């Protein structure tokens, strides 16, 4: 009798320890780029995961320091100072390639994504960690900046030597660097042996592998209401980036001024509540989500096509949803949506 109990107990232990060794969800949160970065992995190597997250933290803190548009003495701050003085600056290979990508996306988006408008973004008060207060800038101030038309086409590269023909160019990578960095994070996790992961910065995310037997499934926040508007399964290597005018804004006398600026008018975007893009290139998806918010409910399909995108969802300020056919075929709405418009292929 006694030996039967021992065998049963031993069997139970073997089963339990077997369970212990299987892959499980591991989770850690970092504070980077002024937001919380949630890193989740499905792995049987918690120690390796913790080590990878420590490495990621170092990488992200460095990117935050070097690519900050207005704080500290990082590379981008130094570059903007040089360009304002009419001088060229030799930048790192990484910043050089980041800026060249940004330049291409600016051109492809007809400059609706325009990271050269740092001065305008600063004028609206978004070069601050706190939400800006008080009245919006005066029209004359906005026009004074607009007439110089700072653009990424003013910027040229000789190797990693960056120069500009327009001293009003001030680069702000706020619409682009996060997506680029999320992609890098996934690559770095993979390199360190973490193959199934999701890296999520406030709803903007990239994934690798799967969540066990199933793909990673994520929710896209409703830009006008509460909770999730739609969920979507995200495949290995894909990123989902959303630009929303609810994220940061200035409020004065009951009017909200969003942090996404239309570079043509100098005023914040008003008719789009959010734009979501899925792509395997995080930087492209990020730049595009911003550009499509600016493009608005009529022009977005043209800009999406020019940027080579097939998976887009736009929600306008009335809650009307616009989808590409490929996006429609993969999302599931989680709330009642009154009107959905699907573009033709
Ligand atoms: P996102 O949330 O990706 O749309 O990025 C918004 C941030 O990008 C803002 O906080 C600004 O720093 C910057 N930004 C605003 N408007 C534009 C624009 N039209 N093109 C490029 N960057 C922009
Ligand atoms: Mg963006």
From TrEMBL:
<keyword id="KW-1003">Cell membrane</keyword>
<keyword id="KW-0460">Magnesium</keyword>
<feature type="binding site">
    <location>
        <position position="175"/>
    </location>
    <ligand>
        <name>Mg(2+)</name>
    </ligand>
</feature>
<keyword id="KW-0285">Flavoprotein</keyword>
<dbReference type="GO" id="GO:0016740">
    <property type="term" value="F:transferase activity"/>
</dbReference>
<dbReference type="GO" id="GO:0046872">
    <property type="term" value="F:metal ion binding"/>
</dbReference>
<feature type="binding site">
    <location>
        <position position="290"/>
    </location>
    <ligand>
        <name>Mg(2+)</name>
    </ligand>
</feature>
<comment type="function">
    <text>Flavin transferase that catalyzes the transfer of the FMN moiety of FAD and its covalent binding to the hydroxyl group of a threonine residue in a target flavoprotein.</text>
</comment>
<dbReference type="InterPro" id="IPR024932">
    <property type="entry name" value="ApbE"/>
</dbReference>
<dbReference type="Pfam" id="PF02424">
    <property type="entry name" value="ApbE"/>
</dbReference>
<keyword id="KW-0274">FAD</keyword>
<keyword id="KW-0479">Metal-binding</keyword>
<keyword id="KW-0808">Transferase</keyword>
<dbReference type="InterPro" id="IPR003374">
    <property type="entry name" value="ApbE-like_sf"/>
</dbReference>
<protein>
    <recommendedName>
        <fullName>FAD:protein FMN transferase</fullName>
        <ecNumber>2.7.1.180</ecNumber>
    </recommendedName>
</protein>
<comment type="similarity">
    <text>Belongs to the ApbE family.</text>
</comment>
<keyword id="KW-0449">Lipoprotein</keyword>
<keyword id="KW-0472">Membrane</keyword>
<feature type="binding site">
    <location>
        <position position="286"/>
    </location>
    <ligand>
        <name>Mg(2+)</name>
    </ligand>
</feature>
<dbReference type="GO" id="GO:0005886">
    <property type="term" value="C:plasma membrane"/>
</dbReference>
<keyword id="KW-0997">Cell inner membrane</keyword>
């Amino acid at each position: 009798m006694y030996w039967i109990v021992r065998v049963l107990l031993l069997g139970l232990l073997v089963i339990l320890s077997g369970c212990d060794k299987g892959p499980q969800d591991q989770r850690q949160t970092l504070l980077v780029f002024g937001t919380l970065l949630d890193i989740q992995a499905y792995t049987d190597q918690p120690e390796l995961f913790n080590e990878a997250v420590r490495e990621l933290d170092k990488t992200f803190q460095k990117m935050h320091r070097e690519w900050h548009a207005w704080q500290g003495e990082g590379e981008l701050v130094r570059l903007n100072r040089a360009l304002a003085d009419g001088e060229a600056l030799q930048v790192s290979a990484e910043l050089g390639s980041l800026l060249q990508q940004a330049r291409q996306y600016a051109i492809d988006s007809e400059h609706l994504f325009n990271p050269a408008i740092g001065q305008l973004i600063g004028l609206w008060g978004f070069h601050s960690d706190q939400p800006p207060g008080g009245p919006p800038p005066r029209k004359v101030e906005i026009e004074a900046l607009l007439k110089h038309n700072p653009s990424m086409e003013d910027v040229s590269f000789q190797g990693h030597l960056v120069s500009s023909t327009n001293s009003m160019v001030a680069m702000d990578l706020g619409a682009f660097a996060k997506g680029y960095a999320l992609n890098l994070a996934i690559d770095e996790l993979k390199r360190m042996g973490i193959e199934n992961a999701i890296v999520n910065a406030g709803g903007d995310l990239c994934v690798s592998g799967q969540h066990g037997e199933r793909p990673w499934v994520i929710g896209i926040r409703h830009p006008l209401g509460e909770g999730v508007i739609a969920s979507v399964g995200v495949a290995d290597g894909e990123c989902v980036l959303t630009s929303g005018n609810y994220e940061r804004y200035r409020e004065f006398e009951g009017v909200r001024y969003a942090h996404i600026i239309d570079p043509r008018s100098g005023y914040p975007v008003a008719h789009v509540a959010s734009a979501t893009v899925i792509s395997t290139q995080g930087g492209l998806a990020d730049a595009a989500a911003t550009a499509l918010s600016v493009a608005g409910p009529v022009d977005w399909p043209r800009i999406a096509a020019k940027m080579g995108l097939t998976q887009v969802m736009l929600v306008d300020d009335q809650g009307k949803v616009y989808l590409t056919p490929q996006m429609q075929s993969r999302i599931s709405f989680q709330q009642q949506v009154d009107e959905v418009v699907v573009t033709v292929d």
